[in-house]
Amino acid sequence: MLNWIFQILFSEILEVPVSIELGEPGTNADVYNVNSTWDRGAGTNIAAIRTSHEVGGNCTLFTKAGMPERRRILDGLEFPPDPEKGCANMFGEMWQNTFLDIIRTLEDDDIIRRPTSLGVIGQNDIVIPERTAVLHPELLIFQGLQGEQNRQKLAEMFLRPTTWFDYCQKVSTSNCTSKNDDAALRPPETQGEDASYFVDGIYTGHFRATDVNNCTLNPNCSGIFIDYP
Q1: By 3-state DSSP, what share of the chain in percent is helix, strand and coil, each rounded to 5?
Q2: Residue 203 pairs with which residues in a beta bridge?
Q3: What pTM was computed for the model?
Q4: Nearest Cα residue to 185 out of 202, 197, 169
Q5: Which is the most buried residue in 98, 153, 216, 221, by most CB within 10 A?
Q6: Would you call 47 exposed, middle or buried from its count of C-beta atoms within 10 A (0-12, 13-18, 19+)?
Q7: What's the CA gap between 137 and 101, in Å, rounded?
């Protein structure tokens, strides 16, 4: 959100055209995207600032339109930057402690100025489905999640997501060849599909207990917490 504010400020107030990318070549998250089809990317490629420094701040060299000029400029450098590393002139916000080593290196090399606080408080939340909260309101406070007394309950409740490949191989009685399968319309056909946990309209996903959830077999049993991408 903050980067969109920066983009509007630069483009409409300061009349400096800028684009928002996500730390990976070819990605786009411009607020002016008429279709609102924003790409997903790492968004944490702080090293892309170094690429910008090496090419004089001209990140247009890393767009398709800038390809011919990029070849001319990069060919003249003794150590040309890798285009696949991405290019960025500014990071509007970041979790500073997460990238402390990279930030210090860039500071030491006089590539960036020391980041300062935005005055905004950030937080990470643990979210559970509403249905689960209604059935188990004790999970809405941390006392209901902590301690050995809750280990087995959480292990039995929060099962592990199953990839499409594992579902077809280990769960589906027909190896996903039946039209009546509970979760998949067909077996996966690519490596990307093999590793998918959900594919809209084809694989709904599946949660199952593994040995890690079995407190009889595993004294350190646990449920699973799924982080955001």
Answers
A1: 40, 5, 60
A2: 184, 199
A3: 0.52
A4: 202
A5: 221
A6: middle
A7: 41
